[in-house]
Amino acid sequence: MLNAELQRIQASLQAFLQQIGKVLALKYLVMDGHFGNYPSAVMVTQIRLQLISKLRQDAALYFSYTGTYPGIGPHPKYGDRVNPRKMDPKYLKESNVEKNIRTDIYQAELLNKEFALPLNVVIILKTNLETEAQAHVILFSTDPELSYEKIIKFYSLRFQIEFNFRDAKQYWGFEDFMNVEKTAVTNAANLAFFLVNLSQVLLRRFQQTNPDLSILDLKAHYHGYRYAVETIKMLPEKPDAFLLADIFEQIARLGAIHPVFHPPTSS
Question: Residue 155: which of 105, 205, 195, 193 has the closest Cα?
Answer without folding.
Answer: 105
